[in-house]
Design brief:
The complex is a heterotrimer. Chain A has a single domain, classed as Cytochrome-c3 Hydrogenase, chain B (Orthogonal Bundle), CATH 1.10.645. Chain A is of the alpha+beta class. A three-stranded antiparallel sheet of chain A has the order 5-8-9, with helices on one face. A three-stranded antiparallel sheet of chain A has the order 14-15-16. In chain A, strands 1-2 form a two-stranded parallel sheet. In chain A, a hairpin with a 6-residue loop joins strand 6 and strand 7. Chain A contains eleven helices and 18 strands. By secondary structure, chain B is an alpha+beta fold. Chain B has a three-stranded antiparallel sheet, with no helix packed on it. The longest helix of chain B is centred in the C-terminal third of the chain and has 5 residues. Chain C has two domains: 259 residues, NADH:ubiquinone oxidoreductase-like, 20kDa subunit (Rossmann fold); 123 residues, Cytochrome-c3 hydrogenase, C-terminal domain (Cytochrome-c3 Hydrogenase, Chain A, domain 2), CATH 4.10.480. Helices cover 28% and strands 9% of the residues of chain C. In chain C, a hairpin with a 2-residue loop joins strand 3 and strand 4. In chain C, helix 2 packs across helix 8. The longest helix of chain C is centred in the middle third of the chain and has 15 residues. Chain C is globular. Classes of the chains: A alpha+beta, B alpha+beta, C alpha/beta. Strand 1 of chain B pairs antiparallel with strand 3 of chain C.
Chain lengths: 507, 61, 402
């Protein structure tokens, strides 16, 4: 999505100035993607996000809490940690969680199937293009099968069938989120309540926002950052990167990469370097700020924004199955979930290891329920795409979005109709970052520091994993290179009225 | 002080190593270093390509 | 809408089996293979990833047509190492390997004591970062000290050691990256990423067989390419091996590696299985609903598209108007008004150059033994040719318009 948005920006289809208003909404100017295109982009992106969240709790995190050493001869689940506080996988509770682990495999698969109804396939799809989607959402085709010798009998669906199939899959997953996913997070939280105060980290949460629900930049997930629970405003121009403790080299006298000039190359000769990740920081006023990104950042920033939160209704499911009655917004959802914990946790407790799991589950529900509304906003046979030619002149664009794991930005510069420069700052670079020039540790490092992991090595290892995993790490995305010949890395968008908007990038 | 190294960190995407220093009487972590252990060189791949190819390639990054 | 059932598919197969890239008799065999449980006698599998995006693993977890991933892992194979999902991580206490449950000890144990199949995902970077010593040390990617007594944790070293080890019977390259280098191996990069046997189309530049990297390692390698590959191609290949081995699994576990080698599926170009994905060009596999309406049918087309006559079928999708499609791109969504349908070759679809059967089996099935709900071209996006060794560089611009 970020790459597509950066192109949409460069082509003049979306103007994103990199700022936000007090409501956390984005003053897009212009916004030319047709409604169907915007909605289907949101649906495809949302389906992948919900799939990713389900996978994260069950298949990437649950085994931090469950001792699976009683599973006979089972592949990746042996050997298992046997820390004293773990839930026994063969106990009643443990067996239920393991059953849900297997159910979750089917549920995440269903979300990918649901997304693929619009996107063609998941993972990795080719339907989202700059300007909207390629997807045909038409009442006219395909024709009914007429005989046993039908050609292409098994082609894709038409609008009505797509909607029906999508809604059926989505509603299965929505019900399961309400009856299983969120309750399991509460169960684990109540069994390991110490982790409401472990893994706090930098307590500064950054979100670029995403899922525009209209053409005016009203976002389902708001843009902004906060210091603990105090909402703040930022500009994308405040983003910089340090390499003091990374395996890169800047030019002389360069520190916070204001990415215009300077030489940068990957090198392990940097003696203080210890990571291929760079250290992105937010620098609104001269001091670099360590920021965490991800579902926690999005849900808390959305919760804090003063203005109109996006309300989702949930008319399709019986009220008894729901976590909170419809209509609801992000703040109501958070309050309802925390009220189920023992003891009841305040919103500030969300900034913790368990808070990250909780926020991710709540966000999965928030997005899934919103998708149920969005799919019914589609208009069959209406336009899903708008075309803009790649211009001859130099053009630049920035795409800010929210990948499942956190705030993601891509910046592109086009010269002579070819890519002259491409940059990304991705979620795990923010979260997994090493120290910066002021020796401030990155979010994951800070989350580990000052946490109590016990004295016994088995406990220590397991507790470290319980603090690390909630960040939902993706290293492949997190590491990238700036041009080794030091060409400029700064991009700015050119609005259709010709004025550049300064957006600083770091990588 | 003891040092605990987790390498490779499991159940993530990609390659990560974490080294922590922990006080062996209190169990409190005093220092932590996160190491991303994979470098892929993406921006160079993008250079000189057609701009519409960017989303195709970037999805895999 | 009517979904294809197994019975209908087999009926359809019997009419047109010869023209299709899939062999129905093969599918029947697979279904019987997957009906067998081989728990506690399963073939150990070690799955390692290098310069990867984990898309191949995620695609595998969507498996449904032949069976689900939990059935595969619980009942069919013994996946002993895959850091993306296993319970334990690698760990050291004060610099010494943690002696309790420890993923890297598990890998080292299998390396030494068990016969296994190696699965490789992601490219293998062989280049040396600035500031390091040696010409091709692979230090851009370190995955853990998986080889007993060897602290060289690079993907390059671990892959070569695990593949050349006498306990390794065969290697499956899952994905275009480990088959051919793929996206991290694309032009312009400094990491010098390779597939196992190939770098792009070059057959002597793989991480296992390039002589400049060391003595070439000759183990059978099956390339299940795709970015990501369809889960059916992966599961189908595994099921073929298990079904062909049959009771020979026991022989294999007792040390007869040749038994497994003999069970590998037949391959076509670039070591890819004929029957699980790669036997036919994309346009013909389905066939694509918009085949036969492409303009610019050049003589240089390397598939049979230009010469196969139009079959006498009732189309559910009109052939379309490629010229209008080329003008409109995707701005027309009302299919009745024309210009929304037609062969996407005019916009850059690579189906004609791509060995893949997505147009037939489609993607993301949620129902056992039923084909998928859609595919890239079904949603009117271009086929990007992601199974080919020419992906992404030589496949060309993905969109042939500005």
């Amino acid at each position: 999505m970020a790459s597509v948005r950066s192109l949409e920006n460069a082509l003049g289809i979306i103007g994103d100035p990199g700022t936000h208003d007090v409501n956390g909404d984005v003053p897009y100017n212009p916004y030319l993607i047709p409604d169907n295109g915007r909605i289907i982009q949101n649906i495809i992106h949302g389906a992948d996000t919900v799939m990713s969240h389900i996978t994260h709790l069950y298949h990437l995190s649950a085994l931090d809490y469950i001792n699976t050493s009683t599973f006979p001869g089972m592949g990746p689940w042996l050997p298992s940690y046997t820390a004293s506080d773990m839930i026994d996988g063969s106990s009643t509770l443990g067996s239920a969680l393991v059953t849900h682990y297997v159910e979750a495999l089917a549920m995440r698969r269903k979300m990918h199937t649901a997304g693929a109804l619009f996107s063609g396939r998941q993972p990795i799809q080719n339907a989202i293009v700059p300007g909207g989607v390629t997807t045909l959402y038409s009442t006219t085709y395909p024709l009914s099968p007429s005989s046993t010798q039908d050609y292409d009998m098994y082609g894709p669906f038409n609008a009505g069938d797509t909607n029906t199939q999508f809604s059926a899959l989505l509603n299965d997953v929505r019900a399961w989120i309400n009856t299983t996913y969120i309750p399991d997070v509460v169960t684990v939280a109540n069994a390991f309540p110490a982790f409401w105060s472990q893994g706090v980290g930098c307590a500064r949460l950054l979100a670029y926002g995403d899922f525009p629900v209209d053409s005016s930049g009203t976002m389902l997930l708001k843009r902004g950052y906060c210091n603990t629970l105090s909402a703040q405003t930022f500009d994308a121009a405040d983003i910089v990167e340090y390499v003091d403790y990374s395996w890169y080299q800047y030019g002389l006298n360069e520190s916070a990469l204001d990415p215009y000039s300077g030489r940068t190359e990957p090198t392990k000769a940097n003696a203080s370097g210890y990571s291929w990740l760079k250290a992105p920081r937010l620098m609104p006023a001269g001091t670099p700020l360590v920021c965490e990104v991800g579902p926690l950042a999005r849900m808390v920033n959305t919760h804090l924004r003063a203005g109109t939160q996006v309300t989702v209704t949930d008319a399709d499911l019986p009220a008894a199955q729901q976590l909170v009655g419809a209509p609801y917004n992000a703040s109501g959802l958070i309050a309802a979930a925390l009220a189920l914990t023992v003891p009841v946790q305040p919103a500030s407790a969300l900034i913790s290891a368990l808070g990250r799991h909780a926020a991710r589950a709540l966000e999965a529900k928030y997005i899934a329920d919103a998708m149920a509304l969005w799919v019914n906003q589609l208009v069959a046979d209406a336009q899903c795409y708008t075309y803009k030619r790649i211009p001859k002149q130099i053009s630049k664009g920035a795409g800010l979005c929210e990948a499942p794991r956190g705030a993601l930005g891509h910046w592109i510069k086009i010269e002579g109709r070819k890519v002259a420069k491409y940059q990304c700052v991705v979620p795990t670079t923010w979260n997994g970052s090493p120290k910066d020039a002021l020796a401030q540790h990155g979010p994951i490092e800070q989350a580990l520091m000052n946490s109590n992991i016990g004295l016994n090595p088995t406990d220590q290892i397991v507790r470290l994993l319980r603090l690390i995993h909630p960040f939902d790490i993706c290293i492949a995305c997190a590491v990238h290179i700036v041009s080794p010949d030091g060409k400029e890395k700064l991009k700015f968008a050119i609005n259709p009225d010709g004025r550049p908007t300064n957006i600083e990038i770091s990588e | 002080m003891a040092t605990i190294t987790i390498d490779p960190v499991n159940r993530i995407e990609g390659h990560l190593k974490v080294v922590v220093t922990v006080n062996d009487t209190t169990g409190v972590v005093s220092d932590a270093e996160c190491t991303g252990n994979l470098f892929r060189g993406f921006e160079l791949i993008m250079n000189r390509r057609d701009p519409r190819d960017a989303p195709v390639i970037c999805q895999r990054i | 809408m009517l979904r294809i059932t197994r019975r209908e598919f087999l009926k359809y197969c019997s009419v047109t089996a010869g023209a299709l890239g899939l062999s129905c008799s093969t599918l029947m065999k697979i279904e019987s293979a997957l009906a067998k449980d081989v728990s506690n006698g399963g073939i150990p599998v070690i799955w390692i990833a290098g310069a990867a995006c984990t898309g191949c693993t995620m695609s595998l977890t969507n498996s449904r047509f032949y069976t689900t991933v939990d059935d595969l892992l619980i009942n069919k194979i013994d996946l002993r190492y895959l850091d993306t999902i296993m319970s334990t991580a690698g760990a050291f206490v004060n610099g010494v390997e943690y002696s309790g449950a420890n993923a890297i000890l598990e890998a080292q144990n299998i390396y030494t004591n068990l016969p296994y199949v190696l699965v490789v995902e992601g490219g293998i970077p062989v280049g040396s970062p600035a500031g390091t010593s040696g010409p091709l040390n692979g230090e851009f990617c370190e995955i853990g000290e998986l080889v007993p007594g060897d602290t060289n944790a690079t993907m390059l070293n671990v892959t070569r050691k695990f593949a050349s080890n006498v306990n390794c019977a065969a290697v499956l390259a899952v994905g275009t990256c480990s088959s051919f280098g793929g996206i991290p191996g694309a032009k312009g990069n400094v990491t010098n990423c390779r597939g196992l046997l190939y770098q792009g189309t070059r057959a002597d530049k793989g991480a296992l067989n390039d002589p400049t990297l060391g003595t070439p390692i000759s183990k059978p390698v099956i390339n299940i390419s795709g970015c990501p590959p369809h889960p059916d191609w992966i599961v189908g290949t595994i099921a073929h091996i298990l079904d062909t081995l049959g009771t020979g699994v026991a022989d294999y576990l007792a040390g007869d590696a040749q038994a497994l080698v003999n069970a590998l599926p037949p391959v076509t170009s670039y070591n890819r299985p004929v029957d699980y994905g790669y036997g036919e060009y994309q346009c013909n596999a389905g066939p694509c609903p918009w085949r036969y309406n492409n303009i610019g049918n050049r003589a240089s087309n390397t598939n049979s598209l230009a010469v196969t006559p139009e079959p006498d079928y009732n189309r559910r999708y009109p052939v379309g108007d490629s010229r209008a499609l080329g003008r409109n791109k995707w701005t027309v969504n009302d299919a009745a008004s024309g210009g929304a349908l037609g062969c996407l070759g005019i916009l850059g679809c690579k189906g004609r150059k791509t060995k893949a059967d997505c147009s037939r089996r489609r993607w993301n099935s949620d129902i056992a033994e039923e084909y998928g709900v859609n595919w890239c071209v079904g949603s009117r996006g271009n086929c990007q040719g992601c199974t080919e060794p020419t992906f992404p560089d030589k496949v060309g611009k993905f969109y042939t318009f500005r």
